[in-house]
Every structure is written in C-alpha cells, then in structure tokens.
Sequence to fold (798 residues):
Amino acid sequence: MDVGHDRRHPFASHQGGRIGGARWPARTQRLLETSYTLCVEGLQEPLRRCLGEFEKQLFALAERAHNAAVQQDCFASRQRVLQDRAAFSQRFMERLGASFDQVGQSDAPQAEPARELKPWQSLELVDPGEQEVSMTLDQLGARGEVRHSSALHELGYRLAVLIAAPPLEGPALPIGPYALAQICHAASAELELPLKHQLLLLQHFDQWVIQPLGPLYDNINAQFKADGILPQLRSIQIPRHIGKRSRPAASTSEAAEAGNEPATAATPAGNAGGAHASGAPIEVLESLRDLLAQQRAGQSGLAGSSSARAASEDELQSALGALQQHLAQVTDQASRELRSAARLREELVAQLNFGKPSGAPRTQLSDEQGDTVELVARLFEQLGHQLQQGGNASNLLTDLQLPVLRMAVADHGFFEKREHPARRLLDTVTAAANDWLDGSDDESNRPLANKLEQLVSRANQEPPSAGLYTTLLADIEHHLALLTRKAQAAERRHVEAAQGRERLDQARRRAGELMAERFAQSPPRGLLRALLDRAWSDVLALTLLRHGEESSAFNAQLKITDQLLGRLPVNDRLALQTEVENGLQQIGMHAEEAVQVAQRLLGAGTPDPSVELPSATDLALRLKQHQRLGEQQSGHERAASPLATPPVPAAAATPRKSAAAQDRPVPAAATAAASPAAVAAPKAAAVDPRERRIEQHLKELPFGSWFEFIDPASGQISRRKLAWYSPMSGRCLLVSRRGQRGEEMSLAQLAHEVASGRVCEVPAQPETLLDRAWRSLTGSLRQPADPRRPSTPEIARR
Fold:
C-alpha cells in the first residue's frame, strides 16, 4: 500500500514510479505499469522519427516558399522543433502517464457540468483554427481505430476487466489513437506552431506513430493474456470476399508502386511459393510476380528442366557472394552487362552448378527466386533512368545492386515495407549522389564521395542483414544532416547579404534623389561637388538605412548637406568640419584622410604649413580605392538587419566619373537616374514577348525552385536553386546545393537564358527517386508484351 504517494502527480517515467497511486489492487497496478513501460519503449523511436521527418518537411516548405514571410515562419518552426524535441518527448510521456493514471474516470468529471448548463448557456463562437484541429484529431483517431480495430477491441475489453469498468473505446482508451492524438496536440502546445504547421505535425504523427502501433498493441495484449486476463478472447473479423484474382493484384501493385505497406487481402492460392511457411501474405511481391507472368505470357521464355532441383536460400546466397567477387574483377562495361536481368540469372545458374560433374542433376533458380532477381534488376534499371547524366550516382547504383539483391532474396520485406532499411539506404545513397555530386573532381565533393564509396564497399563485403543496413543508413543520414546544415547556413548568409544589398541600393537611390533635388537648386562646384556626389551621398544612404528617413539623425545629415551647399547658415565651421569628418569615417575613410578632405573643403582652422594638403584629384583616387575595398568586404559580410549593416562602400550603386574627368560638372539628373533600374529601362522596350511571359512565370515561382544551367561548350549540366529575388529591382540569387553563390543575374537575364535554351526549369518532384522507379517498374510490367519481340534473355544481351 502506497501511503506516501501523491496521486495527483502522473507517472512521468517508466522507472521508479507508480500509476494510479493506491487506487488499484497490486495486480492491476503491476499490469498498468507494465503496459506503460511497453508504451514508453515502443513509442520512443516512432516519436523521434516523427519529429525528424517533420523538421525535414518544414525545411522543404521553406525552400518552396513564395515569399520571405512564409519562409521565415517555416524556419522559425523548424528551429523550435530542433531545440525542443527532447522536451516534447518528455511531455508526451508524462501526459501518457497521466492518461494511464486517470483510466476509468475520464467520463465522470465531464458529466456533471454538462447537466448544470442549459443549452443556450453553452453556445459560443468556434474559432476556425480550433475547429480544424479538432476535426483533424477526430479523423486521426477514426482512421487509427479502423486500422487497429481487432487489437484495440481486445485491449479495450482486457483493460475494462482489469479496472472493473465497461469496455473502453475511443478517447476512454488511454493508449488508443484518439488519446494519443490528443496527447500529441497537447504536448506540442509549447512549440507555439502556426495552425498550418500544427496540422502538418499531426499528419506526421499519424504516419510515423499511429500507423505502426500494431506491434505495440499486440505486445500489450500478449502481456495481458500471459497474466490470465481474458486469455480466450478473440475478435471476430468480417471476411472479405474477393471475386477475381486480377483485382487484388492490381490494387496491391499500386501499393508496390507507391511504396506503401502491403494490403490485407489474402494471397491467391494459384501462386506457388507465394507465401512464407508461416502463412503471412506477400502481397506486393506476389502482385509484381503476377504482372511479370502476364507480360511473359506472349513471349517464349526459357523453362528450366523438369529434373532440375531448386536452389536453397544458402546456395543462392553463396552464388551471389561468388558473383560479387567476380564482378569486382571485370571491367565496367562487362560488369554493366552482367548486371542485366537475363545475364544475371544465367550467371547465377552457372555459379550454382560450378564444379558439378556433367551428369549430375542441375540446380536452377526457383520461380520465386528468378522473379526476385529480375524484379530487382529491373528496379535498378528504372533507377538508372531517373538519374541525371554525368554524375557519380550511376557507379554507386551499379555497386549496390548485388548487395540489395542479396537482401531482397533473404528478406521479402524489401518489397513489402516502405521503411525497410535496405530500401531506405538505396534511396538515400542514390539521392545523395544524384543531388550532391556533379561528377567533377571538386574538393568539396570528395568527403561525401568517399563516405558513399565506403558505405557501398561495406555493403558488398559484409553479409546482408537488417542491422547492417540500419547502421549504414544512420551513418549516411548523419553525414548528410551535417552537409545540409552547412548548406542552409551558407545559403542564409547569402540571402541576408543580398537582402542587405537590396536595402542599401534602395537607400542610395533615395539619397541620390534628395541630393539631386538640392543640386538642382544650388549647384556645387569643384571639390564640394566631388565630395557630395562621391562620398556624402553614401553617408546619407547609410544613415537612412540605419535610422530611417524620419529620424533625427537623418535630418541632421540633411542639415549638414544644406550647410555645405550654402542653403543654411553655418554658425560653427569647426563643428561642421567635425561632423563631416565623422560622416566620412563612417563609410570607411581613414581618419587622416577624412581630416584632410574636411580641411580642404571648409578651410576651417589654420592647417599646419608643413603638411601639404592633397589635390582634388588625389583625394578622388583615394576615395575610389576605398570604394573598391568596401565593395570587396561587403560581398563577404552579412547584412542581417539595418542596425547591423557593414560600412557602406562609397557609391557603388551608380556609375562614377574617372579621376581625370571629375572636375567636369555632372548633371544632377544623370546622377539621380544612374541606377540599375534606370540603365535597364531602355532595354525593356525591346524584350521579346516570350521572354516577358517567362519572366512573369519566374516571378511567381517559390523560393527553392531549381534550374539546370547547360554549358554550350562542354554540355555539362549544373543545378542552381533560386534562393531569393527582389520584386523591386529584379535581382535574383542563385545558389548551389551546398549553398555556394552561383551566377549573378536578374530575372530578365534568367528569362533570356531560359528562352535561349541554356537554362531550363527543373519541375518539383513530389516523389523520391526510388518511388518514381517503383512507379516506372510497375508501369513497364503492365505494358502488354510484343509477340514479335525476342525473348527476355536475348533482349538483355543486347
């Protein structure tokens, strides 16, 4: 009897805590705690996977965002998930413990208040967001109840017997889909996600946690049965009557095509070797075999001898291992030929019969083994068609074929389970090589290329097992996560720098307009004009960028400008000289040079006769050097906010005169209008209508859209991502997969390149490479065979 236990505190950890306090008998208490322990152990990994996939989806949404605000929301939600994932899991387990703690009494607190309220007193406006979340939670619970109906039926009755209550179902079942969905929503409240991201998290929770709950429910039911809780209870399933064989084959082939879990229909009896000895159905594999048999019906295939013996699994694995060693020693061309479906079958048969006397019975592949070999070979062929040309993925894909084939032969779950480690490793390695490696010997490609080669080499050398592929998958996912984070950080730096330069250009343009207005009323001459035109306009732009046009600091700089132009009286020339020196130093000019320029300009004070003041030409040349230095530095610095803007290079936004021509008067209108937008204005009139339509389409593309740049000389293709573009100036930022800055151009120039065929847009692919390969494989198997075509072995030889 737990006298000192606080029953108000739910059981937060499966070690050292109790459920329900002293409310339950010892046996009930023990079984509830055991059930909770099984839940904690069984839900840790699905929760981790759910949050990991949710974080990846948020980054993908940020890449495809149509504007910066949506992109920033995705990045902010992703950051909160990364920082709070451990606390989220802890909150989830604590609330799950509270659900166990309150089992059997969830309905009591809600019944009494409902009787006290009149109908009109309980009416209230429903928030649309809350309503949508509530509907989503109900849908998740309903789908989970249908998916795990048998196990939940038994579990509800056993828990009811355990706590002496009516059968538990729906939200009353503490580990049912309804309760778990509510717990997930409550645990995610502290993440403060937007509504769209809350719904997305619930979708991932359904996919990665609720859908795989079957084994957990079976374990808890088995624990109850072992302890004598309704050991003879059986849920009665309603049989499904299937009329034709072709219907389940078509439906399950679609499941194979999409890479989903196998269907629950029974395996047709007409397929020999279609099921394991345990009677478990192999729906996806059987469906693919049916399609393969239908395609072969019109062809003259090679039938094995009736006296031949089918190879055992160990013999086939030994033959595959020997073939691996053989392929490692032949040339690339011969290796590619031997990996085709027909030649692979022939080589395996040759390996199975190697060293046997001529009169000994031959060993052949069974029908299931032969179909598995052909299906895997065709899958790799379809994967090869999905890869971009000239990359490193083709070689890695070739080297992975036999290890994956050995795994598929040993474990038919390769066809059935989308999350099979071998399938995930194949998809991850192929996508990484296809997306990150471009076939060049660039130094940045070598670490990833070496890592992928090590993984493929280890897969070839070690016996196939789920543990091996799980280890390899974790290794490459960790490496890719590091690369992705580096690429994201580099891309964010470039985007923020581009946004900072855009704000700087806008500030310069506005400063130029204000300066042009004053030049029109009070035209300056000589060094004063050079100073105002070359340097002081950048001082105005920097102050405008940092403080805003309505700020007192910017008004003070305008007042200094008017004093220099003679529009306002100068009461203290020394104070004015000091202000000019400070302004010039803000844009990167050395203190000594700023003093010389101010003294030369204002003539304030008595300069030292031993110090020779530089000429106007000398000062202009020095100023131009500072401009170049500032431009180089600004390309590497971040401009995250107006308060953290780096020193502004002097007047890089407008074309300037040479030092030799600086004394000639410059029209104020030309200074104000000499901006990138004004320079490009005459060209806009001659834009081709097709280019204009393409440019309009480019403006509607979300951030993260990909383009392929084709080198006309070498034909090499390089991919660039549209990371950012300015709606005002049309300037766009293109980056590589690693976040490195690519070509600099405007949207108009990009539209011209697209129209000329040197650049093409890469359409977004909602499916992975492996999913598209499965779909293509199923589509090719559905095509009717041409009776005029030669047999499959002859096709493969060609």
Notes: Residues 307 and 697 are 66 Å apart (CA to CA). The two ends are 80 Å apart (CA to CA). The chain is about 60% helix and 5% strand. Residues 466-521 form the longest helix (56 residues).
